[in-house]
Amino acid sequence: MSSICMAKIEHTERYSWWLNELESLGVNTLKKNGLNNYKEASDLTEAVKQTLYEDYLQAYSESNR
Fold first, then answer.
1. 2-27 pLDDT per residue, tens
2. CA distances from 60 to 4, 13, 26, 49, 65 (A)
3. Per-residue CA distances from 54 to 8, 27, 50, 64 (Å)
4. What domain count does the chain have?
5. Residue pair 21/49 in contact by the 8 Å Cβ criterion
6. What is the model's pLDDT at position 1?
7. Could you report the per-residue pLDDT of 32-61, keeping only the tens digit for each?
8. How many whole angstroms separate alpha carbon 62 and alpha carbon 65?
9. For residues 17 and 19, what is the distance between their CA atoms, to the nearest angstrom?
10. Residue 4 has what pLDDT?
């Protein structure tokens, strides 16, 4: 059984939640290359959020100069 299937079976709610979170951030999860479990999906989500937040802070600080 593939690790993606194992993640879906073992942690259906958490895995689905993280995939939905990624979709809401504009990340296409139809091709879940490398997202083998909820931890990897969680880590990717947090990395995307951090990048977007840093971009926001940079843009906001530049507009206030």
1. 444 445 555 667 778 888 888 888 88
2. 39, 36, 21, 16, 9
3. 31, 17, 6, 16
4. 1
5. no
6. 39
7. 666 677 788 888 888 999 999 999 898 888
8. 6
9. 5
10. 47
Which structural domain, as residue segments, surrounds residue 25? Answer: 3-63
Q: Is 13 helix (H, G, I), strand (E, B) or coil?
A: helix
Cα 58–64–65 angle (5° rounding)?
95
Q: How far is it, in rounded angstroms, from Cα 41 to Cα 16?
A: 9
Q: How far apart are CA 17 and CA 59, in angstroms?
A: 29
35 backbone dihedrals φ, ψ, rounded to 5°: -95, 75
